[in-house]
Design goal:
The protein has 248 residues and is of the alpha+beta class. 15% of the residues lie in helices and 33% in strands. The chain has 2 domains: 201 residues, YVTN repeat-like/Quinoprotein amine dehydrogenase (Methylamine Dehydrogenase, Chain H); 46 residues.
Length: 248
């Protein structure tokens, strides 16, 4: 489940049957509507925002259980993930599937909740929000509305983690269990099932300069070391060739 960030009484929920429903918690009768992956137009209504239109009662958002759902911070879009290994972006006003395609790289096989994180809309130009997706052994970054993969961040550490509980120690697959955005530093923090919290911080121009300086110093050190080795070998060779050889 995920609350709308702009309308306090609106809630989106995903279920094991692949359906996503949008609720107005002030009403006890039924959901406002159901999202359908086959609908790329949405319910327009009389004002273009669904007003006066009959809500959809049936539909399927994913061909598998929905275990990840979130909103963009401006409330304009709903993002969902399902065990059909698909991510879909929905127009929150009309319920339309925006048909963003994230390709075949997504992995989503476990039953627990899959955390999804979208960068704040104010940081990018319109329609350029980034989606952070916790794939197996890596954190994928996509352009939200185009579905284009922009970066793969590899996760350090073993893929299987030993976890202690009241019943003893057990081995589990090390995966991302939660994500949070930290402003104003544009950094992402991830929690993992191995008990670690990892920080993902953007690479700055200063970092790039320091890296070049370190690589330059390393190159100079390697050249000096190689020169010394050549000098030692040369001295050994000269010493051997100068030895006097006698025959008995």
């Amino acid at each position: 489940m995920a609350w709308s960030p702009t309308v306090e009484h609106i809630l989106a929920s995903g279920s094991i049957d692949g359906a996503i429903r949008v609720w107005d918690v002030r009403k006890s009768s039924a959901a406002l509507g159901v999202l359908d992956m086959e609908d790329s137009l949405g319910i327009i209504g009389t004002n273009g925002l669904g007003a006066g239109a009959r809500s959809r009662d049936t539909g399927k958002a994913h061909n598998g259980a929905v275990n990840g759902i979130t909103w963009t911070d401006n409330g304009s879009y709903i993002i969902s993930a399902g065990q059909d290994e698909r991510v879909r972006v929905w127009d929150a006003a009309t319920g339309a599937n925006t048909l963003a395609s994230f390709g075949p790289t997504l992995k989503n096989s476990h039953l627990s909740t899959l955390p999804l994180l979208v960068s704040p809309a104010i940081l990018k130009s319109p329609n350029k929000e980034l989606l952070f997706y916790p794939n197996e052994k890596e954190l994928l970054i996509f352009e939200l509305h185009e579905g284009r993969l922009t970066k793969r961040l590899k996760i350090a550490g073993p893929t299987i983690a030993a976890v202690r509980s009241r019943t003893g120690e057990r081995n589990i697959r090390n995966r991302i269990t939660a994500m949070a955005w930290r402003a104003p530093f544009d950094s992402v923090y991830t929690a993992h099932s191995d008990g670690q919290i990892r920080a993902w911080i953007p690479w700055t121009d200063e970092d790039e300069t320091l890296l070049r300086e370190e690589e330059s110093k390393k190159t100079v050190d390697e050249e000096i070391g190689a020169k010394r080795k050549r000098q030692v070998l040369d001295d050994v060779f000269r010493g051997l060739t100068k030895q006097k050889i006698t025959f008995g």
